[in-house]
Known about the structure:
Strand content: 5-15%
Largest sheet: 8 strands, mixed
Helix content: 25-40%
Order of helices and strands: HHHEEEHEHEHEEEEEH
Number of strands: 10
Mean pLDDT: 85
Number of helices: 7
Strand order of the largest sheet: 1-2-4-3-5-6-7-10
Amino acid sequence: MSRRPRPTARPDGRSSGRLRRTLLAGLVAAAVVFPVSAAASPDVPAPAPSVLGEGAALPDRYAAHLADLAEAARTAENAGRAGRAAKLRAMEAGGDARFLVFDGRGKGRAIEVFGDLETADRVAVLVPGSDTTLDTYQRFRAGAVALQQRLRAEHPRSAVVAWLGYDTPGTVSPAVLTTGRADEAAAELGSFLPRLARLAAPEARLSLLCHSYGSVVCARTETGPEVTDIALFGSPGTGAESAADLPTRARVWAGRGGDDWISGVPHVRVGGIGFGADPVDPAFGALPFAAGSGGHSDYLKPGSESLNGLAGIVLGSSPSAPAAPEVSRARA
């Protein structure tokens, strides 16, 4: 019986090239999706948020959005969504929470202030990664609180803004493997930052602290002179090949905990899937900061080396920091 001849590779290598690209894309998907399970966000009814004019005072903004939050909790309760209602009531923080933005519809949006924004000359903006919604908000808030406590211990005129201002992708979803959601979020964040600067103390310095998929958002956000530093941590990549390619003149930092599973993500970008160069690779050109030995969710853990490193970036006291640029801008 004659044996069927073994197929040979095509001279142009296109078959092997397609196979290689497929395998690389699969590696990215497996590395990102496998370690973390998705957190579902129910489609919960809620009233539309209050609309305030650009000149509204901070106390008025806080009061209006706290009322929106309370109404959203009542609406969720009446709709039989007791779980969401309980999470929203926890966000009220006994009536002391201060939101610049709150929208309880769907996955939700929330931008919360910790500290006295009007007197703060150092402001950190936390940008979260995948699966951060109103249903998982408390873990995001806990990191913001820990950072604010650490900053205030060294510099009382500081504030933290927890920016859940975009529709984060699910950890187990195609969206988490591309820059699509990040591009949409970057437009929102880019327009928010100058407005935030006008609410803070004169000549306040803003730092973007960007976790996981949030680092993709920050890396695609065009920033003005009010932003002096961008820190990428737990990052799968940014979609850019170097820090010099980011649309900012801010100093760019990168750090990764020793036990962060995201170190296993292949740093490739194939057909729009994946995020390319590793931000902690010296070739990327970011300034390194010590991130300790923690895991993917430990960067803002109280007492951690990574929290101290991020606080140092915000306060300008990091030993790796070159001289800070002068901040000069007109105030509205």
